Amino acid sequence: MLIEDLFRAPWHEQVLSELSKGIMTDEQLLAAIVKDWETSDKRNLMVLGERYYRTKMDIEKKMQDITWRSNQKLAHDFVKKLVNQKVGYLLSKEPTIATENEEYRKIMQDMFDKRLLKVIKNLGKEAINKGIAFLYVYIDEKGELAFKKIPSEQIIPFWKDNDHEEIVSFVRVYEEVVYTNTQKQKQKKVEYHHPKGIKYYVLQADSLVPDVLAGVETNYHFTINGKPYLWERMPLIAFKYNEEEQPLIDCIKSLIDDYNLQASVNADLLADIPNFIYKLVNYGGVDLQEFLNDLNRYRAVKLDENGDVDKLQADLQTDAVEKELLRIRKAIYEFGRGVDTQDENLGNASGVALRYRYSDLDMDCNILETEFQSSLEQLIWFIDQYLLMTGKGDFTNEPISIIFNRDIIINESEVIANCQASVGILDDQTIRENHPWYTEQVEERLKKQRQQEQMYNGYQGAFQQQQKDGNVNE
């Protein structure tokens, strides 16, 4: 069997066991997998996406053979803007937790605190940059359920099927700084997470040796009050950007590189061509440097008999470059499926026009949301299991939905006018929910206000009745 076959479904412990009976041992097989992964195109694309997000682009490699020529290296941060635009649009607002069980809803609201919501937001950024992001589920030192985002390039997942729906085991490869005999050095750690525990290794000279400091091996995934447990599922959840796990950078890298190059070359021309070109006839000086010094210092130059100085205007033709840059910019936002906020007509657009301009962004976020909803179902499974294990309740069969509240750009005046026009057609609750200023806090305050009004009306009615009864008695 070839190494490539390891990445085809199904992958499980039995496959590894059968392979180890042949030519390769478990450690040799894992070492070969790690070596193959670190040079794979998929991992390189993940590193590339992260690099471009951090504005470390290929334009930095631009060279200039002529020493006196300018060598501008202009990096335009389209990737960061597009990624942050998608994350902000879909994941910036606090989601709505929908369930009919009030106790369950309160528990899940505590679980989905600001820390977890921040992790989910960062998972969105990681998924867009690298095609896929990974959330590790574990029990912390306090015995509480915790979550950690692991960099995608560190994870080698083994999937149960070709659709990549369920991870049955995975390898994590990362570097760690250690001190040996007061000397600082980096070690490459390798962890093999399988259904029956975790094996720890250190990669040395393309070979895996047991990591004694990490404990070599554990036959559990976590402990609660000293009691070991194994998850029924691998505690690693994949959050995908799309079904193909294709990162954003793969769609727009060539366009960004072309934009950076065109802008940098144009900047070189502007820097190298002066505003005036001097024409010298019978110059009486030694060299051009002396001419420039005399001109700048004395506002005069030395000329021989019949000498003359003239200047020629340097006309720069940049219209073609500007049109090309504009064309590339439009292509970047079209194929990056985002919104160019420098669009002159964006600010005055009506509600319909705004929705049209945001249609590509909305479509891309629809795909991202579909993938994230599937992953959140797995996350909720781990939360339900933790609640069951710790005696906090059995909610495994309780229906629940996590609803993303998008940060949609709207024409608020139009929406408010439509709400007012819907009075008598729709119920008050529906109208309020579609109002741009509506939140759950508004609904709670409105309920309290109504309760206070009812209490006040009740007191007032009782007081009036007492007055009426008093008048009758008199």
The main pleated sheet reads as:
6 strands, antiparallel
Low-confidence stretches: 1-12
Shape: flat
- Strand percentage: 15-25%
> Structural class, from helix and strand content?
alpha+beta
Order of helices and strands: HHHHEHHEEEEEEEEEEEHEHEHHHEHHH
From the alpha carbons, calculate the radius of gyration and give it in angstroms: 33 Å
Distance between the termini: 106 Å
Overall pLDDT score: 85
Number of helices: 14
Regarding quaternary structure, how should these chains be classified? single chain
Features:
single chain; 474 residues; alpha+beta; six-stranded antiparallel β-sheet; disordered N terminus; Portal_protein_SPP1_Gp6-like; Portal_SPP1-type; Phage portal protein
Overview of the structural elements:
It comes from Geobacillus icigianus. The chain has 474 residues and is an alpha+beta fold. Among the domains are: 278-314, no CATH class; 422-473. The protein is built from 14 helices and 15 strands. The strands form 5 sheets. Strands 4, 5, 6, 7, 8 and 9 form a 6-stranded antiparallel β-sheet that branches. A 3-stranded antiparallel β-sheet has the order 3-2-12. Strands 1-15 form a two-stranded antiparallel sheet. A hairpin with a 2-residue loop joins strand 7 and strand 8 (207-210). Helix 7 (249-272) packs antiparallel against helix 9 (319-335). The longest helix has 34 residues, at 440-473.
